[in-house]
Specification:
With about 375 residues, this protein is an alpha+beta fold. It folds into two domains: about 180 residues, Diaminopimelate Epimerase, Chain A, domain 1; about 170 residues, Diaminopimelate Epimerase, Chain A, domain 1. About 15% of the residues lie in helices and about 35% in strands. An eight-stranded mixed β-barrel has the order 1-2-3-4-6-7-8-16. The longest helix has 17 residues.
């Protein structure tokens, strides 16, 4: 079906080809770009209808009543043999569709989806899918398990926050540093103070405001619901986010989904560090891949607000603890040798001295449904 030949209203009769996939610890609707209206307003109206937004339960749509399950991937081919990926966050209880952020979890499903839809020919064993992320202009190379030239979702890889195991999807990211804000440390500083709270603003694929959890009087092990119920805490977090967003070059972020705010504490379960991530009004049950990668940079660089916390700050294989377990990432940074300090807590390093060399992850995805969605 060519989407340019029908109106948005006609999708209630004709429907639209749609695949529902779990990507990492999120779930979303995956579409080919050609199957959706070219006009942005019509496209967004259709997606809101398909998700069942605005409604707190999304009872009349395919959304799962939570930001983590109200996501969309739009995929199209590129002349170089790879694919373009546009991520859209569909608000649950507002009529808002946002392209202001990337999503590393939904990204995990893009490679398998592209192969399933015939955009990239499958190889025997594994298939590499180059992915250009339109939200940020950065790139990733996904390696998908394809025995006998077909996508397999069966495997032994386990990720926290997802029951069972599945086939691995290996992701190597390029160009993540400063992809949304134009600089790895968007304010030009390794630490700032906003709304009276010391923070580090960092963008390694996701704009994140990093805070030592102790600065807000919490220890970082609270359940998401407990943090969400703390009105004073949430008000402080939002006040910090609004000031930081402007300083990061994102403008007025009151209605935006970025930056995220991540509370960081020493690891409790043998990981590298522990997190509680506001996304921005709800607290993530896990943590987004790019949010974790951004926090990992702050963790590794002397002079940030989390550099003095207990733990090994020189690690490259990073285990990010979160409410439902952990996320494993590989993040490597280089600090100009002449600026490298003797200890993380006392530093003469500046934002310009830091270069991200490697950002990667091993995640899983699973096809849940392939068919026709109706508006």
């Amino acid at each position: 079906m060519n989407a340019t030949n029908i109106s948005t209203a006609e999708y209630s009769t004709h429907g639209v080809p749609c695949m529902i996939m779990r990507g990492g610890t999120s779930k979303g609707l995956y579409f080919l770009a050609d199957d959706l209206p070219a006009d942005r307003a019509e496209r967004d109206a259709l997606l809101l209808r398909l998700m069942g937004s605005p409604d707190a339960r999304q009872i009349d749509g395919l959304g799962g009543a939570h930001p983590l399950t109200s996501k969309v991937a739009i995929v199209s081919t590129r002349p170089d043999g790879g694919v373009d990926y546009l991520f859209l966050q569909v608000a649950v209880d507002e009529a808002v569709v946002s392209d202001q952020q990337n999503c590393g979890n939904i990204l995990v499903g893009v490679g398998p989806f592209a192969i399933e839809r015939g955009l990239v020919p499958a190889q025997d064993g594994t298939t590499e899918v180059p992915i250009h992320m339109l939200n940020t202009g950065s790139d990733a190379l996904a390696t998908v398990t394809t025995p006998a030239g077909r996508v397999s979702y069966v495997g032994d890889t386990e990720i926290a926050g997802v029951p069972g195991t599945a086939a691995p999807v290996v992701l190597d990211y390029q160009g993540t540093a400063g992809s949304s804000c134009g600089a790895l440390f968007p304010t030009g500083n390794l630490s700032d103070t906003f709304a009276g709270v010391p923070v580090t603003c960092v963008d390694n694929g996701m704009p994140v405001v990093v805070i030592d959890a102790a600065e807000l009087g919490v220890d970082g092990t609270e359940e998401p619901s407990e943090l969400e119920a703390d009105e004073r805490l949430c008000a402080t977090v939002e006040a910090v986010r609004l000031e930081a967003g402007a300083a990061m070059g994102l403008g007025d972020v009151a209605a935006a989904t970025v930056p995220k705010v991540c509370l960081v504490a020493p690891a409790r379960q043998g990981g590298t560090f522990n997190t509680r991530c506001f996304i921005p009004k709800r607290v993530h049950e896990a943590i987004g891949v790019f949010a974790g990668a951004s926090v990992a940079v702050a963790w590794a660089v002397p002079g940030t607000v989390v550099a003095g916390l207990e733990g090994d700050h020189a690690v490259q294989d990073v285990r990010v603890e979160h409410p439902t377990g952990h996320t494993d990432l590989k993040v490597e940074v280089e600090i100009a040798d002449e600026r490298r300090p003797a200890s993380p807590a006392s530093s003469s390093v500046t934002a310009e001295d830091v270069t991200v060399l490697v950002t990667g992850s091993v995640r899983t995805a699973r096809k849940l449904m392939d068919g026709t969605a109706f508006a």
